[in-house]
Design brief:
Elements lengths: L2 H9 L1 H8 L6 H5 L7 E7 L11 H7 L3 E6 L5 E7 L12 H18 L3 E7 L3 E8 L2 H14 L10 H11 L9 H11 L4 E7 L7 H10 L1 E8 L1 H4 L6 E5 L6 E5 L3 H25 L2 E6 L4 H13 L1
Parallel strand pairs: 3-4, 3-6, 6-7, 7-10
Antiparallel strand pairs: 1-2, 4-5, 8-9
């Protein structure tokens, strides 16, 4: 997908976001922020079992019977997006994982703006490369989306050679330091978030040893883990002897895709990895959501939020 096609999709998201704005706070996400708010909304007669601390003594004295304050549930919260911009996200058959991830981040950003929520973001690869504190307004939303395009290399234009770009980066970077440092992003989020927030982590999760940090983040915040997948993860076609290269380390293998046993092993590994990822995220307290590069982002989010509402 060219940069022009990607931007054309993003320009339609403000319209789609109007339908997702309420769903963003519905269902399970909304329940995280329930409780007594800080702004009194109305009063009603005292009933047995009501907290005596909520009695409005001025109103009670005026009417000669106890009345209690009803508080307006606080609807404003912070929405944070953690976006993986590492080299492994530059792979994909239908479109690059990074492109689908940017589309997902853009739709969430416009939905947050539409619902009046504060939006923040963290972009990471081998470490945190860019952070946007929580803010409001269309200029802030566009700044976050522009930052996502730039950090994922999409802002470089449609003719950029990602292979050469990644090779140059590997020459300047120790291979042990190159990759998706999800741990650094989760730790940075935990330090950055001062109040209970709704957090979306968008990544291919091709990294290890992030479970403990995710669990700590989930204890204080509502976390949705969005795993970007590709159709080739599930079905590998017979293409003969294929040279596969790890975009982060440069390591290569010769894959005999003509053998049914190799294709079956490939598909089983990806299926087991997906099942393990879902189990880990659920055990940590996050909500898993898989988004393939061949899926429509808006339709997938609508289905996801509707399921959460139910």
């Amino acid at each position: 997908m060219t940069r022009h096609e990607l931007l054309r999709k993003i320009t339609a998201f403000p319209i789609v976001a109007s339908g997702l704005a309420e769903d963003l706070l519905a269902g399970g996400f909304r329940s995280v922020f329930r409780g007594q708010g800080i702004e009194a909304d109305e009063v009603r007669r005292y009933e047995a079992g009501d907290d005596v601390r909520s009695i409005d003594w001025n109103v009670s004295a005026r009417f000669g019977t106890p009345y209690v304050k009803m508080y307006r549930e606080e609807r404003e919260l912070s929405v944070f997006i953690a976006l993986d911009c590492s080299a492994s996200m530059q792979c994909g058959s239908v479109m690059k994982r990074s492109e689908q991830a940017v589309l997902a981040a853009a739709l969430l950003a416009f939905s947050s703006e539409r619902s009046g929520q504060r939006l923040g973001s963290v972009f990471f690869d081998k470490g945190i490369s860019k952070m946007f504190p929580a803010g409001k307004g269309r200029p802030h939303t566009l700044a976050v989306i522009t930052g996502a395009l730039r950090e994922c290399g999409i802002d470089a234009g449609p003719d950029v050679n990602y292979g050469n770009m990644l090779a140059r980066k590997r020459e300047k970077t120790n291979s042990e330091e190159w990759g998706s440092n999800l741990v650094a992003a989760l730790v940075g989020l935990e330090r950055m978030l001062k109040r209970r927030s709704l957090t979306f982590i968008i990544s291919d999760f091709f990294c290890m040893n992030w479970e403990q940090e995710l669990g700590r983040l989930c204890r204080k915040h509502d976390v949705v883990a969005i795993r970007i997948t590709d159709p080739l993860d599930a079905i590998l076609y017979n293409a003969g002897l294929v040279v596969m290269e790890d975009p982060e380390t440069g390591a290569t293998i010769h894959a005999p895709t003509a053998f049914a046993s190799f294709r079956a092993a490939w598909e089983n590994w990806h299926r087991e990895r997906g099942d393990a990822w879902k189990a880990i995220t659920r055990r940590a307290g996050a909500t898993p959501f898989e988004l393939s590069t061949n899926e429509d982002v808006a339709a997938s989010f609508i289905r996801f939020f509707k399921s959460r509402r139910r």
